[in-house]
C-alpha cells in the first residue's frame, strides 16, 4: 500500500506580505547638525541647462555683404581708372604747355588832376603746345591783370581760340586800368626806380581751357598762370625792356 502524499498549501501571512518599514530614524533636512554636533552636508542638486547657440541676426549679415560689395566696386573703379589713364598716357604722351611774356608796351601811364592813374598796356604772351596728338581750346571768360606791390594797374581778357598740335601762338592782349588816389603809388614807383634798375610786376592769368585727345574733348578746367616780370621802367615815352620773367602755372577743376 503506497504511502499517502501530503499536499502543502501556502499560507498567506499578512505580516510577512506587508513591506518592511525602515527602522532608521528620519533626519529632518532643516536639522543641519548630527547628534555629535557636527555639520551635516547634503549633496547639492545641479540642473543641467542645454546651451542654445543663437544665429546672428540677418541684418548684420546683409550689412556686411553690402559693405564687401561696396569695397569691391570701389577697388574695381580705381583699378579701371588707373588703367585708363595709363593707356591714355602711353598713347598720347602728354607734355605741359609753355608760356612766356615776351613784350610789354605802355601807351598811356598818366596821373590826372584828381590824382587818379590811367594806364594802358599791350602785353605779348607766347603760348607753346609741344604735343603731337593733343589740342587745346582756350575758352571765353578769361581774365588777365598786371599788379605792382598789391596794386592793380590794368586788366583785360585773352581771346578765344584753338591751338593745334605742335603750335606756337603769340597773343597781343590789350589791358586798361584806372587807380584812384594814386599819389602814393607814383611815389613808390619813382623810389623803386631810383633805388633799383628794375621794377617788379606781377601778371596773373585765369583762363578756362579744354584739352582735346584725338576726337575726345575733356571737361573744362581753369588754367592759372602767374608771371613775375622785371621791367626797366613804366613810362609811355620810353621803350620798355623786360629783363626777366618767370611764369608758374597750375590747373584747377
UniProtKB/TrEMBL annotation:
Residues covered by region (Disordered): 1-39
What keywords appear on the UniProt entry?
Membrane, Transmembrane, Transmembrane helix
Q: Provide the topology term for how it sits in the membrane.
A: Single-pass membrane protein
Look up the record and report any one GO term of the cellular component aspect: plasma membrane
What GO terms describe the biological role, i.e. biological process, of this protein? defense response to other organism
Any stretches that span the bilayer, and where are they?
66-92
List all Basic and acidic residues biased stretches: 1-12, 30-39
Q: Which residues form the Late embryogenesis abundant protein LEA-2 subgroup domain?
A: 125-222
Looking at the keywords, is Transcription present? no
The domain of life for this entry's organism is Eukaryota
Localisation per UniProt entry? Membrane
**What SUPFAM superfamilies would the database entry show?**
LEA14-like (SSF117070)
**Where is this chain primarily localised?**
membrane
Query: Is Transmembrane helix one of the keywords UniProt gives this record?
Result: yes
Q: What InterPro entries does the database record attribute to this sequence?
A: LEA_2 (IPR004864), NDR1-like (IPR044839)
The family database entries (Gene3D superfamilies) matched by this protein are listed as:
2.60.40.1820
| Protein name (database record) | Late embryogenesis abundant protein LEA-2 subgroup domain-containing protein
What is the species listed in this Swiss-Prot or TrEMBL entry?
Trapa incisa
Amino acid at each position: 500500500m503506497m504511502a499517502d502524499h501530503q499536499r502543502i498549501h501556502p499560507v498567506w501571512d499578512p505580516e510577512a506580505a506587508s513591506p518592511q518599514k525602515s527602522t532608521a530614524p528620519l533626519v529632518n533636512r532643516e536639522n543641519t547638525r548630527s547628534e555629535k554636533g557636527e555639520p551635516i552636508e547634503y549633496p547639492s542638486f545641479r540642473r543641467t541647462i542645454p546651451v542654445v547657440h543663437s544665429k546672428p541676426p540677418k541684418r548684420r549679415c546683409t550689412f556686411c555683404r553690402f559693405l564687401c560689395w561696396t569695397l569691391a566696386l570701389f577697388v574695381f573703379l580705381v583699378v579701371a581708372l588707373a588703367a585708363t589713364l595709363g593707356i591714355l598716357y602711353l598713347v598720347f604722351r602728354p607734355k605741359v604747355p609753355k608760356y612766356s611774356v615776351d613784350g610789354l608796351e605802355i601807351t598811356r601811364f598818366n596821373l590826372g588832376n584828381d590824382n587818379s592813374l590811367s594806364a594802358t598796356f599791350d602785353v605779348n604772351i607766347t603760348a607753346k603746345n609741344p604735343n603731337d596728338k593733343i589740342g587745346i581750346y582756350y575758352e571765353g571768360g578769361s581774365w588777365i591783370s598786371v599788379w605792382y606791390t598789391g596794386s592793380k594797374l590794368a586788366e583785360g581778357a585773352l581771346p578765344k581760340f584753338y591751338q593745334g598740335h605742335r603750335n606756337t601762338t603769340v597773343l597781343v592782349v590789350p589791358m586798361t586800368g584806372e587807380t584812384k588816389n594814386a599819389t602814393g603809388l607814383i611815389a613808390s614807383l619813382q623810389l623803386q626806380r631810383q633805388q633799383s634798375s628794375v621794377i617788379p610786376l606781377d601778371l596773373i592769368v585765369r583762363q578756362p581751357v579744354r584739352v582735346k585727345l584725338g576726337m575726345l574733348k575733356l571737361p573744362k578746367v581753369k588754367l592759372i598762370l602767374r608771371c613775375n616780370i622785371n621791367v626797366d621802367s613804366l613810362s609811355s615815352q620810353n621803350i620798355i625792356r623786360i629783363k626777366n620773367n618767370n611764369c608758374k602755372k597750375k590747373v584747377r577743376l
